[in-house]
TrEMBL record:
It is a multi-pass membrane protein. Its main location: membrane. This is Maltose/maltodextrin transport system permease protein MalG. Pfam families: BPD_transp_1. It is found in: Cell membrane. Residues 76-267 form the ABC transmembrane type-1 domain. InterPro entries: BP-dep_ABC_trans_perm, MetI-like, MetI-like_sf. It comes from the Bacteria.
Amino acid sequence: MVRRPFATVLVYLGVALFLVTTLAPILWLGVMSVSLPADLTDKPLSLIPKHIDLSHYARLFTFNANSLGEAFLMALRNSLLSSVGATVIALAVSVPAGWAFSRYRDGRVATVLYVILATYMTPAVALILPLYFLLSALGLLNNVLGLVIVYCSMLTPFTAWFIKAAFDAVPRELESAAAIDGASVFQTLRRVTLPYARAGVATAALFAILLAWDDFFYALLFTSNQNAKTLTVTIADFAAGRATDFGLVSAAGLLTALPPVLIAFVLQKSLVAGLTTGSVKG
């Protein structure tokens, strides 16, 4: 098919508009993170910093007692532990659950799946009191393990539904052939079904990490100091003073966005394959 010049121009304009609206905030954060405070208050505002200042990054990686660097690095540790830990537990539950939902399609199993999805769609504010009382009874308020439990309640329904969709695309004939060869259900799942659906599982893991990493609501309510505060809450604390250091906040924001970007870059092939799983049948 020959594309008309006008259509080609529209396509390039659309791509350019998408890139500008997507990358402009990130680029501006980068400019702010290396700008002097005086440059950010000049009128008219300059889009190019007069002097490159890397002191904000140095402060964030300086691990001194009661410093901003200590708060940032502790928050980085807490975010990694809570998001990765919750994702691992959610996948450990969701893989067998997703396989069961995919392979047993009677009315009762479907009802259970819809009930699980309903818990995922419940507004977060409605779950505050039950989760608070649960963490309080377990002594896990202001604790990374408590955040892991909270995030598991949020991630497990989503990952189970997503992985079920990935398992639906796996031909049942492959599992039947493995069963004829004497493989158990667990062996079939581990050696046949999971390798075939690994793109969907990897995509579910990526989205689960992002959901937990970007959470602010639960982390704000259930943590109170740097022993458990995550990056999102810590950055909000940086911006809560009377005189906000916008360069420091911008540097912290860029560094916070870096791990998810790296994970998405590594898993980009699995992400694309996982999102298109089940879209074509035949």
